[in-house]
């Protein structure tokens, strides 16, 4: 018998032998009124009984279940069957799913990629507070349902629901992904009227939105008016000037950023290296190379590939090859950058030799590789052997087939 005023509950979770093969038959969550541990007798497909993992909610008082279930969702949020089982217990025990518990359910379902049950929890909330709406927005973003976010933002504003910096940030991120400047501008005006544009994260989102939609002057005005700027904000405005080809402004902004004591990120260094390569500033590019080494980015494939590209654009294929050959890990983009660098500097035999190395390494190649090689062949210097010609033709046909079928 249970004590009056208590909720006698055990949650028994039977784990799989392998965490990588989680399936519903191996997990059972059930109530029990026993005061002792009850081992689950379910068996997995291989007819072996795994040792049970038991999370006890024994005699939880009625005024505590919300925090208990919230804790359970936090602890067992990596598997859908766990979440569904805990959700079932919440419903069975008449625990209110308003506000923070509902928000938690929406988040864990969304994080697992199951937006339908997340949306169902949201729709069943009679009182949708800011936390619940924000969780649903984040779920839409995570699952690439960007078009739903501005709709929910408008509902919140028109319904006089309280919005906060996260609400604004989510809405702006969605409009940036959609490149929807019309709705985005409406959201920006709402953000300014509510005063959220002064928040660092929201300000960064506005700058990024303006940059991606091609409003660089507006982005700069917002940027200059921000009292605090994080690295994301600096990267957005610097990236905008790179995108528009204003490379000298990129260098000025970079110097202003480090002058303010902010540490550059790999994204910052990639923008700077591109600016140096495109503007022909070899001395500054060499200094940037030294800076990124000092910052501990010497093994970052993304940064080193940009360094190869910079040296190639500056006509210094020796340093480009030195950086490439010193890389511990190379992506296909790295190989393509070096092959393209040789070709743009007229070193066709070297590009073909590097392509042979790429094939011998067992790595594949893509349309970017093919474009560079065809360009090299059209320059009339050197030729590929029959085997490499066959590989190129086969890959070309494969890529064309993928294009037709898509």
From TrEMBL:
<dbReference type="InterPro" id="IPR011990">
    <property type="entry name" value="TPR-like_helical_dom_sf"/>
</dbReference>
<dbReference type="InterPro" id="IPR002885">
    <property type="entry name" value="PPR_rpt"/>
</dbReference>
<dbReference type="InterPro" id="IPR046960">
    <property type="entry name" value="PPR_At4g14850-like_plant"/>
</dbReference>
<keyword id="KW-0677">Repeat</keyword>
<feature type="repeat" description="PPR">
    <location>
        <begin position="331"/>
        <end position="365"/>
    </location>
</feature>
<feature type="repeat" description="PPR">
    <location>
        <begin position="230"/>
        <end position="264"/>
    </location>
</feature>
<dbReference type="Pfam" id="PF01535">
    <property type="entry name" value="PPR"/>
</dbReference>
<dbReference type="GO" id="GO:0009451">
    <property type="term" value="P:RNA modification"/>
</dbReference>
<dbReference type="Pfam" id="PF13041">
    <property type="entry name" value="PPR_2"/>
</dbReference>
<protein>
    <recommendedName>
        <fullName>Pentatricopeptide repeat-containing protein</fullName>
    </recommendedName>
</protein>
<dbReference type="GO" id="GO:0003723">
    <property type="term" value="F:RNA binding"/>
</dbReference>
């Amino acid at each position: 018998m249970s004590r009056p005023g208590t909720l006698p509950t055990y949650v028994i979770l039977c784990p799989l032998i392998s965490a990588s093969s989680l399936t519903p038959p191996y997990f059972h969550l059930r109530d029990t009124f026993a005061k002792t541990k009850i081992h689950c007798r379910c068996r997995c497909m291989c007819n072996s009984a795994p040792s049970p993992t038991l999370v006890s909610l024994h005699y939880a008082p009625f005024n505590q279940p919300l925090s208990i279930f919230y804790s359970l969702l936090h602890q067992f949020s990596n598997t859908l069957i766990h979440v569904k089982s805990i959700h079932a217990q919440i419903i069975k025990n008449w625990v209110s799913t308003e506000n923070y518990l509902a928000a938690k359910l929406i988040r864990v379902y969304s994080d697992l990629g199951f937006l339908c049950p997340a949306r169902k929890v949201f729709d069943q909330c009679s009182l949708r507070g800011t936390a619940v709406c924000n969780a649903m927005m984040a779920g839409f973003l995570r699952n690439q349902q960007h078009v739903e976010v501005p709709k929910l933002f408008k509902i919140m504003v028109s319904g006089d629901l309280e919005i906060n910096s996260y609400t604004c940030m989510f809405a702006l991120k969605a409009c940036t992904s959609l490149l929807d400047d019309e709705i985005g501008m409406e959201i920006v005006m709402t953000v300014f009227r509510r005063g959220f544009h002064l928040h660092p994260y929201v300000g960064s989102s506005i700058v990024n939105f303006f940059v991606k939609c091609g409003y660089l002057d507006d982005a700069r005005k917002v940027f200059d008016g921000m009292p605090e700027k994080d690295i994301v904000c600096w990267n957005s405005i610097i990236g905008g000037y790179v995108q528009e080809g204003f490379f000298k402004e990129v260098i000025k902004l970079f110097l202003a950023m480090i002058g303010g004591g902010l540490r550059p990120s790999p994204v910052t260094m990639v923008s700077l290296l591109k600016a140096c390569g495109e503007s022909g500033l070899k001395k500054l590019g060499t200094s940037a190379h030294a800076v990124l080494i000092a910052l501990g980015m010497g093994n970052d494939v993304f940064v080193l590939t940009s360094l190869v590209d910079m040296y190639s654009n500056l006509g210094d294929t020796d340093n480009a090859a030195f950086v490439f050959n010193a890389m511990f890990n190379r992506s296909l983009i790295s190989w393509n950058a070096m092959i393209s660098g040789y070709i743009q500097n007229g070193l066709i035999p070297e590009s073909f030799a590097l392509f042979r190395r790429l094939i011998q390494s067992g790595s594949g190649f893509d349309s970017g590789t093919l474009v560079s090689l065809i360009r090299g062949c059209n320059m009339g210097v050197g030729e590929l052997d029959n085997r490499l010609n066959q590989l190129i033709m086969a890959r070309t046909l494969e890529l064309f087939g993928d294009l037709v079928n898509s």
